């Protein structure tokens, strides 16, 4: 069964009283557990809107989203943040770390929402920081870290509740090529060694090539799909 299953998804924005804009238009997409999929498309094609729906930050206007067997349209709003916290680790272009809060506390945050005890939170957060080679920076604030270091902390945070899905929106967009490479290598590691489902949203074709599946979106519709390098890799 697909981990992410989108069926006839339409998203419309109503602008003023008379105008509506169809941003996602009868979109169908299934991503299986353990896949590494890239979603590519030009600016304005609907990628962020799609990410918000996959990440249950927003609901479609029409259509059904089944996440890990759970029909999201049947989940009340007040339960969505819990589901998000369990199922999805978010990684953003702009890192979205909490300022004036240590790297360690940033990584602890999703576990705080999940009501993990303080002791367990701290030790897991520290272990996660070590896996992204940021253990030595645990007590540092985001403004003391480089962009690449911030993104590694953000990936550790995304992993906090061990979600099956990592949803990354232009994760290397703010980084130079060397640190961007490091971030992509972490995603490959999580995919290959921890069986994480990686959904990478990007307008960078070169990065998208590294996925197993490359899904093209244009004007709110899926217009193509092809295999990427990860699909051809010989084990
Ligand atoms: P992408 O991420 O591919 O650049 P987006 O999903 O951000 O595309 O946007 C797709 C289209 O939807 C754009 O035309 C954008 O202006 C429009 N849009 C996005 N969010 C809103 C909103 N909250 N209200 C109205 N229009 C929006
Ligand atoms: P809500 O405001 O719906 O209660 P929370 O702020 O409690 O949601 O967030 C719950 C989880 O969802 C957290 O793990 C958080 O990282 C993630 N999350 C919610 N909104 C966003 C967002 N805009 N960007 C990134 N992550 C988000």
What does this structure look like?
- With 235 residues, the chain is of the alpha/beta class.
- The protein is 35% helix and 30% strand.
- It contains eight helices and ten strands.
- The protein has helices at 47-54, 77-87, 103-113, 118-131, 147-158, 177-194, 205-208, 229-232, and strands spanning 2-15, 19-32, 36-40, 62-67, 70-71, 88-92, 165-169, 197-202, 213-218, 221-227.
What is the overall silhouette?
A: globular
Amino-to-carboxy terminus distance: 24 Å
Tell me about the largest β-sheet: 6 strands, mixed
Heterogens: adenosine-5'-diphosphate
The count of strands amounts to 10
Q: Low-confidence runs (pLDDT<50, min 5 residues)?
A: none
**H/E series, N to C?**
EEEHEEHEHHHEHEHEEH
Structural class: alpha/beta
Mean pLDDT: 95
Order of neighbouring strands in the sheet with most strands = 6-7-8-3-9-10
| Multimeric state | single chain
Which range does the strand content fall in?
25-35%
Computed CA radius of gyration, to the nearest angstrom: 18 Å
Helix fraction bin: 25-40%
